Amino acid sequence: MIEVRMPQLGESVAEGTVTEWKVREGDGVEREQVLLTVATDKADTEIRSPATGRVARLVAKPNEIVAKGGLLCEIEEGAQGTAAPKAAAAVEAPKAEPKSNGGPAGLGLASPSTRQYAREQGVDIQGVKGTGEGGRVTQQDVQRAKEPAPASTPRPHSQNPPAPRPPPAQPQAATPLTVDLASLVQAGGGFVPPIPGVGYGSYKVPAYNPRPGDEVIPFNRRRRITADHMVYSKVVSPHVVTVAEVDLAATSKLRDLHKDRLKKEGIPLTFLGFICAATVKALREHPALNARVIEGAHVILKEINLGVAVETPGGLVVPSVKHADQLSLRGLAATIDELATRARAGKVTADDLSGTSFSVSNPGLKGNLFGGAIISQPNVGILRMGEIKKRPVVVTRDGEDAIAIHPVMFMALSYDHRVVDGVLANSFLWRVGDILSRAEFEVG
Questions:
Q1: What is the DSSP track for 360-400?
Q2: Which one of the listed residues 124, 256, 323, 421 is annotated catalytic?
Q3: How many angstroms separate the CA atoms of 65 and 58, rounded?
Q4: Residue 260 annotated among the catalytic residues of the structure
Q5: In sequence order, what are the residues at sequence separation of 6 or more whose Cβ sits closer than 8 angstroms to the Cβ of residue 108?
Q6: Residue 112 pLDDT more than 80?
Q7: Which distant-in-sequence residues (6+ apart) come within 8 Å of 216 by Cβ?
Q8: In this predicted model, what pLDDT tens digit does every residue of 195-229 receive, in sequence order?
Q9: Which residues pair with 73 in a beta bridge?
Q10: CB 409 within 8 A of CB 432
Q11: Is 337 a catalytic residue?
């Protein structure tokens, strides 16, 4: 009997959620046939059969969170398949009831990221009462469970009874944040975060009253993860945005010289490829932008893994070009195209989406002048491209200034002011523009 277990789905992924079984108990399967799909905070992954045989037992239930190495199913190698109808109930996920993950009712229901956070904090999540949607445990719940209850202080004896006190005010019902804002409260800092959908202090968010024609679109898993990520990033990182105007005339000529030849080889030579190559070169010269913040310090990362935002039918994803500084312009362009193609087809893996040390965001052909992107955590910077437009520029020819029409782009760098100062950020962005304006590339 072959045991199929939850694999390591990424360098920082410790568990996955079973989203759908593709087989039933008793089904015959071929080697490399898809058995089930598993979701993590980063990507959806297909788990394939390690051998030809018969599905002897499905162990993990749909919507169940399984840790790395946990048993998913068993395959009887070489056996003939005879489908068992009774397994149908185990294949389809329950629709109306919230999923359970063991333990008492209402305890332990949490996302993979929250469960990992609980492990890091030494908190048994099965004993934490969730205050999130459907009883889900949030990172705030874990933080509260970790904090010891305040000890009662004995009062000195007095002959006179204390004056009666007014009853304590009842706390107002609120929708809890799904990001760990509680951990942002420093000792004595007194930071109290606003509550989405409720308000802050005396300000209250107006209630939503449905109107004819309104369409309510529930967050899917990717949108919820993205929303939590963006809120967290804006709270934890003091964003500063600086903008550069870049003349792309020289780069455009170089691109026109080689794009048809590389296209025949299956490599699209886009402006995105040139901008990513310039970014990587500037990161080598300004390594402090290739960093992350840890408690009480920041780490300058040796590996340059460049994240490139890709719009897909399921939402925005940011696959990572590993060791981007070791690739030529040609290799970088080919890798970006390959990752983007797989992302749009839903074929990126958790490893493809992990390990990014700096990101580039491209709004596409219908972009705008420029915009300040939100930093992708735990990076300390992100470069956003603007649209490319022909504009009048001043050029010097034979010592004389003249007006010419050149393709121009505005690029915006968002950086984390906790560890990146303005001089460094502006020097980095200036260098990216300088490389592009001079076309300092070897196409190969």
A1: EE---TT--S---PPP-TT-SEEEEEEEEEEEEEEEEETTE
A2: 421
A3: 14
A4: no
A5: 101, 102, 125, 126, 127, 128, 137
A6: no
A7: 210
A8: 777 888 888 989 889 999 999 998 887 788 888 88
A9: 4, 58
A10: no
A11: no
